[in-house]
Amino acid sequence: MPQITMKGVSKNFGDVTVIPQFDASIDDGEFLVLLGPSGCGKSTLLRMIAGLTGITSGTLGFDGEDVNEWTPSRRGVAFVFQSYALYPHMTVRENIAFPLLMDAFRKWHHIPLVSSVMRWKLMRRPDIVERTNQIAEQLELTPLMNRRPASLSGGQRQRVALARSLVRDPSLYLLDEPLSNLDAKLRTQMRSEISTLHQRVRKTFVYVTHDQVEAMTMATKIIVMNRGEIQQIGTPDEIYEHPANTFVARFVGAPPMNLLPVRQQGQQLTLEAGATFTHPGQLPADKELILGLRPERLRLQPAEQPGIPVEVSVVEKLGAEVILGCRVLHPGGGQSGDLLRQDLVFVRISGNPHVAIGTRASLGYDAAGVNWYSPQTGKALHPAAAPLLSCSA
Amino acid sequence: MNNVHQIPTRLLHILLVLALTVFGGFPIYWMATTALSLNSELYNSGQVPWPQLANLPSMIAELAQLPLMRWLMNTSIVAVGTTVLSLVLGALAGYSLSRFKFHGKGILGFLMFMTQVVPEALILVPLYAMFITLGLLNSLFGLVLANVGFSLPVAAFIIKGAIDAVPYEIEESAVIDNCPRISVLTMIILPIIAPSMAAAAVISFFAGWNEYLFAATFLMDRDLWPASVGLASFVGQYETPLSAVMAAALIFSLPAVVFFLLIQRKIVAGITAGAVKG
């Protein structure tokens, strides 16, 4: 199983730079998720690892060996496409067995007509039949073996695509948003199936998604990308608890982290709306700061208690929890004049408490759950934040 | 309630289909009726509008005097040769035009399109001169080449259009699965675009089957004539044996009809469904 290293990897399409420079490494057996918004270059990066897209500059290495010029087949990777990319004229059995047939083919077997005869012959070879059946059984595809992709559901097609990638037992699995076409229920099911699969096969997985839930639940390590650049590399916990910059803070988490621009005067913090409150811990040296608070780190408390004065504007009941959207109040008690420009401060409360819209309250928090960012650079000021553009994997 | 409303629409559909069937089928019926008439009747008392089966033995006797099987064999060689060559070269050309980026791609496409604008008669003389030089005159192979010149661009464009619609990921998936490019084309792409291949086959086959001008010009040997030239040779200065012409034409049409019936199912079958999301 190779360790994958990317040194100064970049990609241009004509004059457009998609990935300016990418440095990272992926360890053996890791489940790495490339997370980022659409168009951030994560799929391009995956395709470069697979050899489907050329690298403009830099070096891609498998176990230290430069593989830039290697063909996709020589790289020995499995690739699961977002669109499944099943062969529509073949049955499920033929789809799963296809990589095995290609491995068994000699050069002259590719001569047209000869290839048809050899396919027919090899489909009956005991080892290929056994391996195909074994993989199909693992993914519960046995009853569907003689059906064509057109007659399968989305989830079944996705499982066939996974089976086809598994059958050759490659050392590296590349998955490009494989669950994005499935409905929410099926996505949850497939998520756990892929995680189980990773634990069982113990191979390296590189998984591209823009869905943070997929990233948080499956990854052993996440690389957050934006505009072709690495924003942060870390474990799911590190990414969630200590985002390296305001982009990561806003991108990871639903609702996202609350980012409140504040001005400090001693222990007093003044919000843009004018409200002043006392911070319960130590502050960075900068005068202008962005206070970052995850919604679950905030407590809704009576208006008389010290904290951020707010009025509840939105109440979303999710069953096991309630998400409140609050607007910060002026010192005089009214809402800020530019309501539309002002972001809501989200609060997550466990259980199902009754909170009415219009309720005035104070938001409290503990110093331990706070992240600080520079308003100028957007980078974390908290000493516990993960290092930006870390190369370690 | 809905069914009641659907009755007039359904009736209209049936009437329309019947009218089209009569419109399309009448020439064939008239051909059969003419074939079963006597020449004396056709030229004197006029044609009886229904088939006279009593004349069947005389029709068979008349046909037996003609080298019909040889002509049909020659036509088949030309039609099948044109089809196979057009499909093989058309698949390679269509794939290249669809998937590769190269200089002059636009001009190449334009030139291929232009072959359809130029009438066959216009290039007859230069082609004749070229065939003399290449020693392809009086040869069925030469005739196949001349036909392919016209049917290949059509086949290539049909195939290119079909390959354009095949998601690139399917091809990439095959490449990842260790499949070389030639097998990607033959084992993955071509089966997926089978309906378009069938359409290109029909066009190429009928271009070869019905071809007359090149065959009449390039083939001097009577034994090499295809049926189209053979049938035309019936037309005499003073008399044309119309019943024999129609009988031969009927037999000439049958293999083409069978070919079309065999291949038409492929044309209507869309098998790409389910390959990708959606």
Overview of the structural elements:
Chain A contains ten helices and 20 strands. Chain A is an alpha+beta fold and 393 residues long. Chain A folds into two domains: 4-241, P-loop containing nucleotide triphosphate hydrolases (Rossmann fold); 246-373, Nucleic acid-binding proteins (OB fold (Dihydrolipoamide Acetyltransferase, E2P)). In chain A, the strands form four sheets. Chain A has a six-stranded mixed beta sheet with strand order 6-7-8-3-9-10, with helices on both faces. Chain A has a five-stranded antiparallel beta sheet with strand order 13-12-11-14-20. In chain A, strands 15-19-16-17-18 form a five-stranded antiparallel beta sheet, with no helix packed on it. In chain A, a hairpin with a 2-residue loop joins β11 and β12. In chain A, α3 packs across α5 and α3 packs parallel to α6 (154-166). The two termini of chain A are 16 Å apart. The model of chain A is unreliable at 383-393 (pLDDT under 50). Chain B is an all-alpha fold and 278 residues long. Chain B folds into two domains: 2-62; 67-268, MetI-like (MetI-like fold). Helices cover 74% and strands 0% of the residues of chain B. Chain B contains 13 helices and no strands. Chain B has helices at residues 2-35, 39-43, 56-64, 68-99, 105-117, 124-134, 140-164, 168-176, 181-192, 194-210, 213-218, 227-232, 242-268. In chain B, α4 runs parallel beside α7 and α4 crosses α10 (194-210). Chain B is globular, with a radius of gyration of 24 Å. Chain B starts with a helix and ends in a 10-residue tail after the last helix. The chains are: A alpha+beta (393), B mainly alpha (278). Chain A binds chain B through residues 50, 52, 71-73, 77-79, 81-89, 98-99, 102-103, 105, 110, 112, 115-116, 119, 148-152, 154, 157, 164, 168, 181, and chain B through 167, 169-170, 172-180, 182-183, 186-188, 191-192, 194, 271-277.
